[in-house]
């Protein structure tokens, strides 16, 4: 069942989303050559806790940290580590969740570390573009498949691989609620979108093939061809006035 949120609940989701946005701002400012993903985790956790929120990911399914930090060919769910030191030319996908007064904000972003190649710049640019294409479809009386189709069209136009095993999801007092959102067409139009539906839209696109697999650590997902992957995510509400991005940054 898809749980539609009241205006008051959306206010709380937005408050959680604003904390996620602040945490991303801090991450963006901190990311540089020589920083470990463990240090980045601490920086983000600090911002979340200083704002009286809880890092949603910590302990979720046993996940050991506050952020997912996925470098280069890592797609999602990378575990922060003192041994992972950022280098010039890397990209890092940082996924952040914060729970505030029981409501969750969820947003991921891929950041460059110094100069990156033109191919990788385009991967970031078009994955972000696919996110906004998906967001633009978050209006009443569209179907969920319209969001998926918009993401797929941008990915296909730029010949990027689409990760199929993971996708977007409803967000509320739980990080993962119904519905599941595919990042490509399935041929099923899915539920009708109505005001109060809140979904984390999160395309994961690859410079190479679609295929991914999970490492033996039980978490980290990597591309099968070891080519870089990008991940952009916002938590978004359908409203009568159009899509409302709850994790928006300045
Ligand atoms: Mg996320
Ligand atoms: Mg998510």
- Any idea what the CATH architecture is? Alpha-Beta Complex
Summed up, the helix count is 4
Helices and strands, in order, run as HHEEEEEHHEEEEEEEEEE
CATH fold descriptor:
Creatine Amidinohydrolase
What small molecules are bound in this structure?
A: magnesium ion
Estimate the strand proportion. 25-35%
Itemize the secondary structure elements and their pairings.
Elements: H1 7-30, H2 37-50, E1 54-55, E2 67-71, E3 74-76, E4 91-100, E5 103-112, H3 118-136, H4 144-157, E6 161-162, E7 168-170, E8 177-181, E9 198-201, E10 204-206, E11 212-214, E12 221-223, E13 229-231, E14 234-239, E15 242-245
Antiparallel strand pairs: 1-4, 2-4, 3-12, 4-5, 6-10, 7-8, 7-9, 9-14, 10-13, 11-12, 14-15
One magnesium ion binds next to loops.
Short descriptors:
binds magnesium ion, about 250 residues, 4 helices, Creatine Amidinohydrolase, 5-stranded antiparallel beta sheet
